[in-house]
Design goal:
It contains eight helices and six strands. It is α+β, with helices and mostly antiparallel strands. Mean pLDDT is 77; it is low at 25-36 and 51-67.
């Protein structure tokens, strides 16, 4: 008698456990076939059939499968120490390249500024000197004319020559140099040909006369020299 009552109580507990699971309460599922014997399972089935609408669902005593939890592996998400070291080395290399490029740009800028300042200092007076060149030409032409036409006024011409030389000395201090290429090979970079003349004394292609001096300032051409170029020996007419 005691065994029958014990089995009955176990069957009722199993029944109410199944019913609670069907109503959505979160409890640990129990496999009826393993938790109780065949008689307890049959008794639980009879109790479930007495409740309309729930017998068909309560008869299934198979344990429900627990939902699989999508648990990500922490080791797969966190980068390893080697990955962190590689990223740090790559960033350090990129920063070093950026530093070298910046230092190179700064050095190039410094050199360019120094060169521009030097050129500005050297050629700051180029405009003024270029405007004074016609004045210098007229002074030299007037001195040559006075010496030829008035040889008796030697004292005056000598004083005038001293003034012209002083004027040239001031210009030479700014590194002004005259271009007077008599007897030299014609150079289109420094000379301006105004005429060709045949000559037996001067080789063809060389300068035989200068009509106007040229000048350079700090090795930069201010004005080309106007020259007459020899065309060589004139061909005899047949």
């Amino acid at each position: 008698m005691g065994r029958v009552m014990a089995r009955t109580l176990r069957g009722e507990e199993l029944f109410w456990s199944i019913r609670r699971n069907m109503k959505g309460e979160k409890e640990t599922e129990v496999d009826c076939s393993e938790a109780a014997g065949p008689k307890d399972a049959a008794l639980a089935k009879e109790k479930a059939e007495e409740i309309p609408g729930e017998g068909s669902e309560a008869c299934s005593l198979e344990p429900s499968e627990a939902p699989s939890a999508d648990v990500s592996d922490p080791a797969a998400e966190d980068p390893s120490l080697e990955d962190k070291l590689g990223a740090a080395l790559a960033e350090a290399s990129e920063n070093r390249d950026r530093y070298l490029r910046t230092a190179s740009d700064l050095e190039n800028y410094r050199r360019r500024v120094i060169r521009e300042k030097d050129e500005l200092r050297r050629f700051a007076v180029s405009g003024l000197v270029e405007e004074l060149l016609p004045v210098l030409d007229n002074l030299e032409l007037g001195l040559d004319s006075a010496r030829e036409q008035h040889p008796e006024a030697k004292a005056v011409t000598d004083g005038f020559a001293m003034a012209v030389n002083q004027f040239l000395s001031v210009l030479n201090q700014q590194n002004l140099k005259a271009v007077a290429p008599i007897g030299e090979r014609f150079d289109p970079n420094l000379h301006e040909c105004v005429a060709h003349q045949p000559s037996r004394e001067v080789e063809e292609g060389k300068v035989m006369a200068v009509t106007r001096k040229g000048y350079t300032l700090n090795e930069r051409l201010l004005r080309p020299a106007s020259v007459i170029v020899s065309s060589g020996v004139e061909a005899e007419e047949e």
